[in-house]
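Support request from a user on the community tier.

User writes: "When I paste my C-alpha cells into the form, the page sometimes reloads and wipes my input. The last time it worked, I copied everything first. Here is what I submitted, just in case something in the input itself triggers the reload:"
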C-alpha cells in the first residue's frame, strides 16, 4: 500500500547567479512499512526533495509544481496544497525528520528529557513534565544506556552518537507513520550508523513505520533498504528493489556508482565521485542531464531529448532502454 506518492515535484532556488533548478519533475512512491534509500552525489537534490514533501523549503527556494499525496486512513491529502496550519500538525508528528546535524536539533539550555517531553507535548498537549517517564522510555528504545540519568543530561554531556539517538527518540516520540532521515549517520562511526539503521528497521517492524533515508554509504543501503532511488542532477534516474538494483543496475550513472563501491580500497562502500563534475543546475545540460559524463551516450539523442522513465518495479530514465 502506498503511503506517499510524490509526483512531478519541481523546486527552484532564485539566486543572484540565476535560477537553480534543484529538483525537476521528481516522482516516487513510498510504501507502508518499507525503507526507501535515496542515494546520489552531493548536490543531486536528495535533501531538497525530502524537505519539500512537507514544504520545508526556505526562500529563495520555491516549490514550483507537483504533488505529494499522503494516504491516511483512506484519506488522500496533498501535502503541497494543505493549509500551513494543518500541515504543521502532520509535520513532526505523522511525518518526522532526523536531520544531518544532531547538535542543531538540540537546545543546549535544556535537558534531553525535557526536550523529548516538549516534542511529545507539542502534539499531544499537556505539561512537558508529565511526559518525563515517556522520555526515559523513548531513550531506552533507542538503546541509550542508563536512560534515567541520560534524560537529565544536557546535550553537551553526551557523545555525538548519543545526541543522534536522542534526536531520533524525539523524532519517533509521536510514532510517525513516515520517518525521513537525512544522513542520520555522518556524525557517528559506521558501527553506530548500522545500529541506528537496525533500530529503524525494528521500529518499522514494530509499528509499520515507513522510512526514507538519505545516505552516501552503499553498504548501509545494501543492508537496510528495501528499495532504492538514485538521484542525479535534480532527477531520479533509477528506482528499484535493493537486490535488483545491486544485481542489475541499468542506468549508466548507477553502474558508475556501484563500480566505485565494489572497490576493495573502499571497504566502507562510500560513494566515490565518478569521472566528470556534477552539472551546473542553473544551466543544466539539455536532454539527459547525465549525458556529458556518460560513456555510452547515444549521439543525436541523449544531448537533445530528455529520456522518459520506463518500467514498473524497476524504473529507469535512460534512452538505452526506451
Ligand atoms: N538555499 C539554497 N540556495 C541556492 N541553492 C540551493 C539552496 N539549497 C540547495 N540548493 C541547491 O539545490 C541543489 C540540491 O541540493 P541538495 O541539498 O538537495 O543536495 P543533496 O543531494 O542533499 O546533497 P548532499 O549529499 O551534499 O547533502 C544543489 O545544487 C544546491 O546547490
Ligand atoms: Ni543533502
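"...and here is what came back when it finally went through:"
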Amino acid at each position: 500500500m502506498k503511503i506517499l506518492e510524490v509526483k512531478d515535484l519541481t523546486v527552484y532556488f532564485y539566486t543572484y547567479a540565476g535560477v537553480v533548478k534543484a529538483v525537476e519533475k521528481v516522482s516516487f512512491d513510498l510504501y507502508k512499512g518499507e525503507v526507501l534509500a535515496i542515494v546520489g552525489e552531493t548536490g543531486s537534490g536528495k535533501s531538497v526533495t525530502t524537505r519539500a514533501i512537507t514544504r520545508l523549503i526556505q526562500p529563495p527556494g520555491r516549490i514550483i509544481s507537483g504533488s505529494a499525496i499522503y494516504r491516511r486512513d483512506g484519506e488522500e491529502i496533498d501535502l503541497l496544497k494543505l493549509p500551513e496550519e494543518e500541515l504543521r500538525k502532520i509535520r513532526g508528528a505523522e511525518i518526522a525528520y532526523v536531520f544531518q546535524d544532531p547538535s542543531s536539533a538540540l537546545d543546549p539550555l535544556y535537558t534531553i528529557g525535557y526536550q523529548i517531553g516538549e516534542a511529545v507535548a507539542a502534539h499531544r498537549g499537556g505539561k512537558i513534565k508529565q511526559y518525563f517517564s515517556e522520555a526515559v522510555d523513548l531513550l531506552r528504545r533507542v538503546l541509550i544506556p542508563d536512560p534515567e540519568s541520560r534524560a537529565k543530561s544536557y546535550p553537551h554531556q553526551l557523545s555525538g552518537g548519543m545526541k543522534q539517538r536522542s534526536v531520533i527518540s524525539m523524532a519517533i516520540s509521536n510514532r510517525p507513520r513516515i520517518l525521513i532521515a537525512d544522513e542520520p549517520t555522518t556524525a557517528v562511526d559506521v558501527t553506530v550508523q548500522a545500529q541506528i539503521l537496525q533500530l529503524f528497521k525494528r521500529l518499522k517492524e514494530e509499528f509499520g513505520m515507513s522510512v526514507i533515508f538519505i545516505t552516501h554509504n552503499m553498504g548501509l543501503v545494501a543492508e537496510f533498504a528495501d528499495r532504492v532511488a538514485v538521484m542525479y542532477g535534480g532527477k531520479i534516474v533509477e528506482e528499484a528493489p535493493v537486490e535488483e538494483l545491486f544485481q542489475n543496475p541499468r542506468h549508466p550513472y548507477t553502474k558508475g556508482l556501484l563500480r566505485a563501491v565494489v572497490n576493495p580500497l573502499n571497504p566502507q562502500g562510500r560513494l566515490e565521485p565518478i569521472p566528470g563534475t556534477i552539472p551546473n543546475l542553473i544551466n543544466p545540460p539539455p536532454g539527459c542531464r547525465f549525458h556529458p559524463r556518460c560513456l555510452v551516450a547515444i549521439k543525436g539523442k541523449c544531448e537533445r531529448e530528455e529520456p522518459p522513465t520506463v518500467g514498473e518495479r524497476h524504473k529507469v530514465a535512460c534512452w538505452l532502454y526506451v
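Agent notes: The reload is a front-end session timeout and is unrelated to the input. The mean pLDDT is 91. The CA atoms of residues 14 and 60 lie 5 Å apart. Escalated to web team.
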